[in-house]
Design brief:
Layout lengths: L7 E5 L8 E7 L9 E7 L5 E6 L6 E7 L10 E7 L6 E4 L7 E6 L13 E8 L8 E9 L3 E5 L5 E6 L4 E6 L1 H5 L2
Antiparallel strand pairs: 1-2, 3-4, 4-5, 5-6, 7-8, 8-9, 9-10, 11-12, 12-13
């Protein structure tokens, strides 16, 4: 459906959810940032907070921004060159194996048309070892129709990915060894 107009911000609690406060807008709906929405969050190795945001912006890339406290002082949002934007929610998660390790899931089939109106298929998992600066590892999880996904990492490092398949909900379970095998 239509998500416009929209912007991305955070809500936070300093008392374990008893009360909530609104943070600053992290990604505004202005200029080249067109209707940012469906934002995911991860904690980086230095405890900064990274937001990864979907949009319908012409660069066809996810928008990222970081903050020291996850509520204020967001840096200038930027389109990440490695993170394709098929106009579909993606997921991001920190992995405890090595500091700076992040996982990202999202469909990767993107057309060359303006605003990336690609198909929601070829769900892939990406790996970064430098807090999301680069994403050199990409592994196909689902070749066919696939869309919204959510990642979580279990205490033993096992990764779970829940995602939309072809008119069904699917789940995958894997370790970093699967992701890094050729």
């Amino acid at each position: 459906g239509d998500h416009s107009p929209s912007a991305s911000a955070t809500l936070y609690s300093d008392d374990h959810g008893k009360t909530w406060q609104a943070g600053e807008v992290a990604v505004p709906n202005e200029g080249e940032y067109v209707n940012p929405n469906e934002t995911m969050i991860a904690t980086l190795s230095d405890n900064r907070v990274m937001l990864l945001t979907r949009s319908v912006s012409k660069p066809n890339r996810k928008i990222i921004t970081t903050s020291a406290d996850g509520a204020t002082g967001w840096n200038t949002p930027a389109f990440h060159p490695d993170l394709w934007e098929p106009v579909c929610m993606g997921s991001i998660a920190s992995h405890p194996s090595v500091a700076g390790t992040l996982l990202f899931s999202c469909p990767r089939r993107v057309s060359d048309k303006p605003a990336g109106r690609g198909k929601r298929e070829q769900l892939s998992i990406m790996l970064s070892r430098d807090d999301g600066k680069t994403w050199p590892v990409v592994k196909l999880l689902e070749d066919g129709p696939s869309a919204y996904s959510d990642l979580t990492v279990l205490p033993d490092g096992t990764v779970l990915c829940l995602y939309e398949g072809n008119k069904t909900i699917k789940a995958a379970r894997f370790g970093l060894d699967w992701l890094t095998q050729p």
